[in-house]
Design goal:
24% strand, Deoxyribonuclease I, Chain A, Rossmann fold, 546 residues, 22 strands, alpha/beta, 2 domains, single chain
Amino acid sequence: MMHLHRALLCLLLSLFALVARSGEVVSQHFESKLLQRGYRYQVYLPDGYAQGTKRYPVLYLLHGAGGEENEWLDPIGLRQILDGMIADGQIQPMVVVMPAHFQGWWVDGARDQGESALLQELMPHAERHFRVDARREARLIAGFSAGGFGALNLALKYPQRFAAAALLSPAIYDPLPPAHSSAMTQPPFQTDGKFDRQRWQALNYTAHLAAYKRSGLIVPLFILSGDRDTYGIALQSAQLYEKLRLHQPGAVTLRIVEGEHEDPVWRLGLPAVLRFLNERLPPTPMRQTLRVMSYNIRCGSCERPDDVNHWSRRKFLVADVIQQSGADLIGLQEAELFQTRDLVALLRDFDWVGVGRDDGREQGEMNAVLVRRSAFAISAQKTLWLSPTPEQVSRGWDAMLKRTLTVLQLTSRRTGQPLNFLNTHFDHIGKVARNESARLIAKTVQGLGPDAVVILSGDFNSNANFDGYQSLTQSLQDAATVSHTPLAGGGISFNGFGTDLQPDNKIDYIFVSPAVEVQSHRIVTDLYNGLYASDHFPVLVQLRLP
C-alpha cells in the first residue's frame, strides 16, 4: 500500500506542475522577546504578489512536534499544491505563513510561551511585513499532528481571530497521550523532568471547549486522520467531531482516510483541506486563465490537389496543432469557409465567427475566430473592413486585397467576465494600408472603453518596425514583450512550408490590454515527419485576465 501511496503522490504533484504558475517562498526571521531567541518562519507568496497592491487572505500552518519551518514544503509539497490549485481556480490566491517552534506544541508550556509568541509576535510581524488581510474573516489556521493540537486550541480559545481551521492527524489525546507519543517526553508537558498529567489536561482542547461553546462564535473545522494512525487519532478525531457536531451543524467535517500518521496522508488530504478553508473566505472574483492562438493556416485552395501541402492532407495537422495547444480562442487568418468548417468538425468543442472578405458573407478568405464553447459564449460580433469605409465591403488605401477585422464580444462561462477579441490580417503589399489599418484598429480599441479587456491576434505582414506597430502599442501591449517567462520557439513565424526560414521573421502577433497578465509566449514550431502544418507557425500565449 505504501508503494501505491507514493505513486499517487507523484501523480498528484506532476498534475499540479503541468498547470502551475510558481509562487515564491521567502524566509523571515525576528528576535522573539518572549522566547528569548530567534524566531524563523517561511512565507508562500502567490504568483503575481509582487506586481500588485492587493491584500490577500492569510493561512497559518503549524508543523508537528519535531518539525521546523520547512516541514510543509518538503516532503509535503505545499508550494506545488498551492501553485496548482490557485492556477486551476480551485482556491483564491493567499499568503501562507509557516512558523517554526521545535517541540513547542504551540502552547504556553513548561519551557516556552509558544502560544503567546505566535499570537503576539509572529502574527503581527507577518501581517506588518506582507500584504495580508488581517481581518478575522480572512485569517485561517491549520496544522498536522502537534500542529493540529495547536491549531485546535487556538481556534477554540480565540474564535474571534480565525475564520476556519483544519486539523490533520491532530494529536488531541483525551484524556492522555499514548505511551509512545512524544507528548509524554517533550518540554511543554513536563514537571520536574516527568510527564505532568494535570498540565496536559490544562493545555489540551477539552479545557477550552465549554468557553468556546459559550462564546457565540463558530469556527468551521475540517478534521482529517488516517485509519491506521498508530496514535489512535482516528478515534480521537471522531470523538472531537461528536463533541462539535450538534453545536455547529454543517460547520465541522470529518474525513477518515486510508493511511498512517505520515506525510502521504497529509499531502493527499491537503487539497481537500485547502478547498474547505477557501470556501470559508469572503468570495473574490477568480482571475481566469486562458490560452490564445493566432494562426495563419494558409488558404485551402492555394495548392494543387496533388501537392503534399494540399488542405485535404494539412487539415489534420492544423487541427492537431490547435488541439495540442489547449487554446480556448484561436484567431485564424487566410481561412476559407470550407477550412473553418473542417476544423470545427475535427475539433468539436468550438463555435466560430467570420465572413468572407470579398462579399461579407462566404466569398474569399476570412479572419475566422474559433471559440471554445465550454469556456466562452459569443455575445456580439461584427466585421470591419480595413479601409476608410470600414462598415462597407471595401479595399483600403494602397492594399492589393480587401482586408478585414473580426470583432467579438465574449462572456466567460466561468466568471461572467466580458472580453473583447479582435482578429485581423494586414495587407502584404500596401505599406500605407498597414499603417492606416493599425490606426483604425487602435481607434476601434479606444471605442470599446477605457476599462475594456482586449485581445488582438493577427498576421500583420511586417516585423515590429513599422509605424502601425507604434499605433497599436499606445493602448495595447505586444504579448511577447511582457511575458513573465522567457519566449519559446524562436523568432520566426513565417516559414514558407520550410523554404523561407529567415531569421527574426516574425510577422504574427498577439496584443493584449495592459491589465492582462501574459504568463507565457511561444511560437509553435512542431513538425509532422518533416511536414509543416502551414506556411506560418502559430503564436500561442497563456494569459490571465484581470
